[in-house]
């Protein structure tokens, strides 16, 4: 799939998001629940600020010594019978996984949810080499059946309602029961169980790798990642190069931050730490293990003013706090990484060219920065992106450019201003209903699609003032 | 070769960080340690209270029993599951320590089909067909209600994963405040040169998902129901 999703321009994506009323309602309710979960979990701890400080210090220390820890990690994985492949690009990473699949004569691949494999487009690569790839996370499975990209990094199918899911299951898998979530989940359990047992290859991401022991840790709730790493004979874990921690003691802290910040859970149902291959006397677990460590644009962030963007632990707390995400939904960002962190990270990983609108998808209210469990100054990064886009690169985002040009013209002469405000009342008339503008034209459209805009007063201020003065004179 | 492209990759990392490659790093000292303050100084009995309270949050039944009454407790929990009578249990030294072979024999007479995980062909297949998996917690985290399993030849990954229900027997002595203490044990063992188990599973109740309209669904790919039995062993 790659990091970029779809080719529609930014304005159209946003429009589609705003017009999707189920999605908007779902996102807003999910945000509310995620946020109250996070706040409750933080309150329970009592000293959340200390936890955030510790998280930031751990991530900072690790990034500053990344070469050391990645070296240690690879040594440990090797010691435990695993193979490590450092990949500079998505293509290199995919080619390596394809090669392993080919060697193993793999037909069926089961996957557990992983953003980095979405980012490098691993599924398409494996399908090209003739493998059947099955996503086993419930949300990802729904999206895979429907050929739809994720809209949230924790709950990827947030934009779909249960009726749509029932329909997808019915059309693609012959499902005949109701749209009760429990029945839908039971169907997924039954369908995917077969895939887990038959698969030749299990592919996972990696929430955190522990340098001191070579463990790859997966933080999940459904149990699918455990299936993927217990049943197939070969396990390939793909990780972004920044996803490492020094020791188990740091692992414990970042996992606690992740589960609390993401879903308000003290720990998720499964924290699974896998080290190398199964031992000789063990019956389940893979006999062959590969760790693919991916750069794909991360390296060039290291050592820059944006380095702290690599501290991200993918909890989505910033997404759940963002008022812009709330209104436009995940797909509007045109990136598999939506929300504030997506707006910071996507242009860094994939260049400004396709993503120069993203830093503007923010009100700079700093709710994201405040929510971040490892204190990434997200809104400051967004401001810096804007500066770079506008000043240094001299290619202002069209949306802002047009808006500023329009406003400048509009406000440049008192006469024009007078006329346009006077005209507004008449010009808006076709869209006015009960003194609220329901569907505005042009630049107003973005606003009125999500809320009714108060109609300009029947008398503008100058008219009103003139009349009042006249009345006073008469009195 | 089992590590590919490392040198060029890590050289570039160091270059971007504006320095030579580092071959040694001092263990960092962090300015705060909030993780040590959670339930600091709590007694084992206070930790049990925390664990029991957390069990209701994680949809897991909680029983407290003695070694002598473990058989009765197990029977009660198995009856409450009302499912398949096929049971897969972890093996190892704790089986005898808690008198389980005798208890399992008694349950066999009542029609239960018990198999002890013994590192053989057929373990996984049996677990896949079993309705219940029984494991022993190696370290139990009171704060989150988590059982820690060091999976090995006696204790397959599948036992707590494939059956529809799972039972964790929790020796009281394994209770610690939170994940901090478990991580420290593993870290210290690593430093002593005792490598960690190929799979460490921190399990907190049954599997679940919120992927459909944010409704919590208990029971997805892993177990649908979970029960903890705490046994006095101190």
Characterize the structure shown.
Chain A: [4Fe-4S] cluster 1 binds at residues 312, 315, 318, 372. The complex is a heterodimer of chains A (475) and B (234). With 475 residues, chain A is of the alpha/beta class. Chain A has helices at residues 10-19, 21-45, 48-64, 66-79, 90-103, 115-120, 122-128, 138-146, 162-173, 181-198, 224-230, 248-263, 317-321, 323-328, 339-350, 367-371, 378-392, 398-412, 414-428, 445-448, 461-474; strands at 83-87, 108-111, 132-135, 201-204, 208-210, 215-220, 234-240, 244-245, 270-275, 288-294, 432-433, 436-437, 453-454. Among the domains of chain A are: 41-300, Rossmann fold, CATH 3.40.50; 418-474, no CATH class. Helices cover 52% and strands 11% of the residues of chain A. The model of chain A is unreliable at 413-456 (pLDDT under 50). With 234 residues, chain B is of the alpha/beta class. Chain B has a single domain, classed as Rossmann fold (3-Layer(aba) Sandwich), CATH 3.40.50.10420. In chain B, strands 2-13-8-5-3-4 form a six-stranded parallel sheet, sandwiched between helices. A four-stranded mixed sheet of chain B has the order 9-6-7-10. The mean pLDDT of chain B is 95. The interface between A and B is large, with 106 and 87 residues. Strand 1 of chain A pairs parallel with strand 1 of chain B.
């Amino acid at each position: 799939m790659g990091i970029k999703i779809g080719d529609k321009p930014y304005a159209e994506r946003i429009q589609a998001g705003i017009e999707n009323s189920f999605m908007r309602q779902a996102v807003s309710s999910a945000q509310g629940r995620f946020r109250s979960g996070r706040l409750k979990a933080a309150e329970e701890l009592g000293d959340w600020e200390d936890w955030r400080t510790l998280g930031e210090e751990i991530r900072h220390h690790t990034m500053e010594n990344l070469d050391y820890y990645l070296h240690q990690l690879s040594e440990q994985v090797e010691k435990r019978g695993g193979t490590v492949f450092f990949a500079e690009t998505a293509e290199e990473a995919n080619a390596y996984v394809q090669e392993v699949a080919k060697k193993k004569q793999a037909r069926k691949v089961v996957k557990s949810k992983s953003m980095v494999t979405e980012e490098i487009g691993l599924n398409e690569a494996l399908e090209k080499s003739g493998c059947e790839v099955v996503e086993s996370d419930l949300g990802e499975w729904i999206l895979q059946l429907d050929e739809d990209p994720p809209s949230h990094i924790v709950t990827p199918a947030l934009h779909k309602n249960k009726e749509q899911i029932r329909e997808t299951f019915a059309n693609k898998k012959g499902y005949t029961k109701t749209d009760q979530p429990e029945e839908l989940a039971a169907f997924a359990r039954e369908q995917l169980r077969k895939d887990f047992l038959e698969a030749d290859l299990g592919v996972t991401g990696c929430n955190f790798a522990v340098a001191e022991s070579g463990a790859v840790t997966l933080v999940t709730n459904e149990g699918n990642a455990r299936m993927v790493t217990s049943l197939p004979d070969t396990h390939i874990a793909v990780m972004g190069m920044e996803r490492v921690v020094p020791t188990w003691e740091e692992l414990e802290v970042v996992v606690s931050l992740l589960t609390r910040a993401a879903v308000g859970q003290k720990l998720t149902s499964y924290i699974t730490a896998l080290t190398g291959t199964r031992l000789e006397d063990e019956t389940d677990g893979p006999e062959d293990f590969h760790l693919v460590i991916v750069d794909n644009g991360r390296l060039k962030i290291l050592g820059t003013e944006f380095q702290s963007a690599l501290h991200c632990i993918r909890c989505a707390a910033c997404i759940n706090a963002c008022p812009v995400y709330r209104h436009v939904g995940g797909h509007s960002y045109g990136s598999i990484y939506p929300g504030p962190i997506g707006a910071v990270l996507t242009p860094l990983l994939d260049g400004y060219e396709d993503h120069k609108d993203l830093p503007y998808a923010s009100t700079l209210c700093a709710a994201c920065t405040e929510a971040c469990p490892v204190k990434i100054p997200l809104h400051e990064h967004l401001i810096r992106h804007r500066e770079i886009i506008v000043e240094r690169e001299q290619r202002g985002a069209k949306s802002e450019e047009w808006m500023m040009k329009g406003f400048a013209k509009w406000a440049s002469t008192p006469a024009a201003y007078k006329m346009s405000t006077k005209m507004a009342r008449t010009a808006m008339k076709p869209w006015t209903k009960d003194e609220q503008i329901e569907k505005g034209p042009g630049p107003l459209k973005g606003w009125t699609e999500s809320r009714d805009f108060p109609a300009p007063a029947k008398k503008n201020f100058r008219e009103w003032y003139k009349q009042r003065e006249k009345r006073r004179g008469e009195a | 070769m089992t590590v590919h492209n490392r040198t060029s990759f890590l050289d570039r990392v160091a270059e971007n960080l504006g320095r030579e490659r580092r071959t040694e790093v001092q263990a960092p000292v962090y300015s705060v340690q909030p993780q040590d303050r959670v339930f600091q100084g709590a007694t084992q009995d206070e930790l049990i209270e925390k664990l029991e309270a957390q069990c209701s949050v994680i949809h897991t039944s909680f029983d407290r029993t003695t070694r002598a009454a473990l058989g009765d407790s197990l029977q009660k929990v198995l009856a409450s599951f009302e499912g398949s009578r096929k049971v897969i249990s972890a093996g190892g030294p704790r089986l005898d320590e808690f008198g389980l072979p005798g208890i399992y024999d008694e349950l066999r007479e009542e029609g239960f089909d018990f198999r002890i995980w013994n590192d053989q062909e057929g373990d996984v297949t049996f677990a896949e067909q079993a309705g219940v998996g029984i494991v022993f917690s190696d370290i139990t985290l009171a704060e989150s209600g988590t059982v820690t399993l060091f999976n090995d030849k006696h204790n397959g990954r599948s036992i707590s994963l494939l059956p529809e229900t799972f039972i964790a027997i929790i020796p009281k002595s394994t209770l610690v405040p939170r994940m901090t203490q478990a991580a420290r044990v593993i870290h210290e063992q690593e430093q002593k040169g005792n490598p960690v188990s190929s799979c460490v599973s921190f399990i907190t109740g049954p599997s679940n998902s919120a992927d459909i309209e944010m409704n919590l669904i208990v029971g997805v790919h892993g177990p649908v129901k979970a029960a903890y039995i705490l046994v006095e062993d101190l």
